[in-house]
Amino acid sequence: MDAVPARARGFVAAVALSAVLCLLPLPVAHTPWEATALLAALYAACEHAVRRRFGGTFYPVLLAGAFLLPPAAAALVPVPAALLSPVEHPPALLRRVWRAAQPALAVWAAARTHRALGGEDAVLGSDFPSALLPAGAAVLAFCLVLTALDGGLRAAAGLVPLRRAWRGLLARSPAPVAVHGLAGLMMAVLWRSPYGPVAALLVLLPMGVSWWVFALYHRERAAHQATIRALVQAVDIKDGYTRGHSERVGHASVLIARELGMDEDRVEVLRFAGILHDVGKLGVPTRLLRKDGPLTPEERRIIELHPEYGHQMVRGISFLGEARAAILHHHERLDGSGYPYGLAGDRIPESARIVAVADAFDAMTSTRCYSRARPVEAAVAELERCAGAHFDPRMVGALVRALRRSGWHPAVTADEPAYGTAPAERTPSTGAPR
Fold this sequence. Notes:
Layout: H1 6-23, H2 33-53, H3 60-68, H4 71-74, H5 79-84, H6 92-116, H7 119-124, H8 128-156, H9 169-172, H10 174-192, H11 196-201, H12 204-238, H13 245-259, H14 264-276, H15 286-289, H16 297-303, H17 306-314, H18 323-329, H19 350-365, H20 376-386, H21 393-406
Helix pairs in contact: 1-6, 1-8, 2-3, 3-6, 3-10, 6-8, 8-10, 13-14, 13-19, 13-21, 14-18, 17-18, 18-19, 19-20
């Protein structure tokens, strides 16, 4: 308990007190206790199964409670699940209180919104089209409360500055919660129909299957990320001069791709391309990567094999898609003077042309053991000077426009702050390490 900041404990206590106040107007004689208990037990079972097998939270039963029960009774539905669920990290009591209070407030707000808009009568009359508007408003209220409380806890715990505590939280929640809300509405309508609660439970079957598929997707995505992290860490260990460079090239590649209007799936692939562009250095002798002084022609030829090594390493990783071509061709130049195959113009894959610009830009704006970082303006001027010969002017222009909006914050990537002769290779125009 002592490890949790006092402000965070105070925030959780305030949220818990607010949840208790929501329960005070509970009319004991007129509360549908049987339905409340059944929904609470069902939610506890679903939460246990979902958290244990897939991770995450399962909201359809909670939202069905918001559509079926009075607000105070609906606020009781998540409490047993939160208080009885296992807690993996201390402090257990504080976490249980938070898990109970946060959804209790959210479902109470949803139920109040739903009733205020006449949703109870629409559900009771099985008037499904008319029930959509109050249900949608209830789902929005549910999302807003969850988001407000999540952001408040992040700020109170000191995890992020107050001005950034809610950034991005609301944008991620409406779509999945809306699907859960639709399932909850279907449960509520069937519950009030002549078929009763048993028919309502059938709604959970397709939801369970879809949740399982969704969880498998996220597990696969997590495995992809772990694979990439392992490869990048291996490169960083082998070549300390470029530590952190891969992640920044991935970020710059994303800036260019988004500026060009590419869809998010392709943007993600280009992020992978930027992060893994130098993975082939694992096949280059460490003594060459860390050599102090100029390389011999033979040593340069060995280092120039690293794009091919990288392509061989990742060609069996199907989820990388066109990132594999970027890894192979990111040292090609528009005028045909690059390597490994001397491709020119449009024969160079678009992904490789993006990563080439991102790579050169970060190399110029990062402090290395053999050179100080150039100002962003100087690096941009150099890229523009080489556009059309070494770099694709479209990609250079996209990066310049993105930098005007978001800026750039180069970091020291070398282990040592000393400056001297350049180890390894540099291109004549940009000084970017190769």
